[in-house]
Amino acid sequence: MQNNNQRQPDIPVVAGISDPILDGIANGWNVRESTEVADGSVVEADVIIIGTGAGGGTTAEILAKAGLKVLMLEEGPLKSTNDFRMDEREAYRDLYQESAGRMSKDGAMSILQGRCVGGTTVINWTSSFRTPEPTLNYWSEEFGVEGFSSADMAPWFETMEQRLNVAPWQVQPNENNSVLARGATKLGVDWHVIPRNVSGCWNLGYCGTGCPTNAKQSMLVTTIPAALDNHSELVYSARAERLIMEGRKVLGVEVTALGRDYQPSGKSFVAKAPHVIMACGAINGPALLLRSKAPDPHKRIGKRTFFHPTTFCFAEFEQVIDPYYGAPQSIYSDHFQWLEVSGKVGYKLEVPPLQPGLTSVLLLGHGAQHFDDISKLPNLHAMIALLRDGFHPDSEGGSIELADDGTPIIDYEINDYLWDGVIRSWLTMAEIQFAAGAKAVRASHVDSPWFHSWEEAKAGISQLEFRSNAFTAGSAHCMGGLTMGEDQSRCLVDSHGKYHHLDNLYVFDGSAFPTSIGANPQLSIYGMACKQANKLLETIKASA
Amino acid sequence: MFNTSRRGFLQLSASSAAALTVGASLASLSGCSKVPVANGYKQLRAGDIEFLSALAPVILNKSYPGTLADAAPERLTKALDTLIGTLQEYSRGQLMQLFDVMQVAPIRSVMGAQWGSWSDASAEQIEGFLQDWKTSSLQLKRMGYGSLCKLLTMCWYSQPETFVSTGYPGAPKKIPA
């Protein structure tokens, strides 16, 4: 109980920051809470976009600036700068799916996913990577995706990098990230600085609870305001319940108005437009199509769902790490990522920020051991490995099913193929942590003790037993479920993002990815949505 | 080697699923799931609060009740109540089923908790119960263990009053413009 509790690090007071959303609303933006829409009414627009995350936000700006009236529907609440007080309790409740307690069906995977205006871009850790070339090539070779070569995609990535101010982080990494750089250097493992989508970042460390300084260039402070400046409308706390279809056309969307408690308020309305774009993520997107009984001749909706299953390895250091302060992710290593493209699973190494609520979950366990671990928080470092799933016949991904009330159930199994990667990733991380000077290292598995040397860890980690729910498999990246490609027996949307079996339904988000990305996916979504929204615009103009 | 042990787990897990399903339906027959939620709560019933309050000092160890003292159980169970209310149907259903099973002594006993009521169980007994679930070959017990620990620790260690026990100096102060 006495652990460092009197320490008062020199951290800034965040003051004098404006709230661009409140300002915009005061200046007449067309923004409504769903319960303000008259029960049973019809809201019309040129284009409906379901979801306001990376895909929806990017698309909204492009279409709105071209003069289309865009209606943005968002299931989550509208929270903005003044609400972002770096408090885990408020953030998980207001900004995350299921209060950050979202889990796979068997409880073995914990999933962090946004649920607010701006989607996951409001709560992600800002890492911005272009889709790796081997991933794009794999999509083309295996799924017949067209127009997605590195050269095809480069201008779209460049456009979005400029739009969102993506650049390698120029500031000294925090100590939590430095451990990765230091240990990797000692071992001859290559590492690089992470490009981040920030502008005037204060280096606070609270990207995950909503940026309190407007520095993170999330959809909330960039593309959504731009769309609202251009005659578009946003209705939040509005859950797309069902697509209304006739033949090959989507006529509209049935929308449930959610109350302040995030439960259905009893009110509903219908949104109508000639074009409907789904950008509601790899879990809720497939669930919406399943609920709608959308045409799906090969039963592909919700299949090939990927998560970058993420393993955790903790290390204790003599020196203070303060793993909750400073830009959460600034160093990465792809050294173990592309040893084989479609053989044993590859992984990307990064570090996570360690605020106490989240850390207590990742440490696993209970009682004296758990308390002992978490009471070392200021001296703890953690490393993560994101397993690149979806590139092997034994990695077909999970699936999305529906519960009785129509909400999604996420079925995903860590199988033997992935477990091999789990063990290898723990070994890699432990070796790097010891090389960086760790006193002790522990894999996030309930049976793992603290190891006091690399030799001890090497022997011990190899012995850890596979039991589902006994180790942390996390995910902050939901991908797939509505596979993109030209092979209609395996794919649901074409290379332009149009749903194969409907004429005016589009999917512009990570659910269209045929595999996981092999990198934090936000820039992959931005680039793809930018390309596809511009293509859709051409189509709309041509038919006008 | 893995294949053998994995198949073993799957079989055990099927039988435990059966045990839990039977348990849950017995619990619902006995009227357990019809028990109204506790006053001031939206999900949890009096028995659930008793169960969670009994687990808390064992799971949270020396950090509990900490400076919250007598206010700790209510702070924790209210936070849990809010979180559980935002879970989607499947997860919430599984969790409430687990709570149901923990309410009915004979079923609870089959699942490794033999005492009359949760408030009668000693810390040693609860520790034994948690250890059994943690290392069990039954997937449902491991899932129960994992979910309970995750939910309790997440709700607890995000409370500012507990920062003193982890050494977390706290977030920067925000003064809205």
Automatic annotation (TrEMBL), chain B:
NCBIfam families associated with the record: TAT_signal_seq
PROSITE patterns: PROKAR_LIPOPROTEIN (PS51257), TAT (PS51318)
Alphabetically ordered keywords of this record: Signal
Oxidoreductase recorded as keyword: no
Superkingdom, natural source: Bacteria
Protein name: Twin-arginine translocation signal domain-containing protein
Taxonomic classification: Bacteria, Pseudomonadati, Pseudomonadota, Gammaproteobacteria, Oceanospirillales
InterPro entries xrefs: TAT_signal, TAT_signal_bac_arc
Leader sequence residues: 1-27
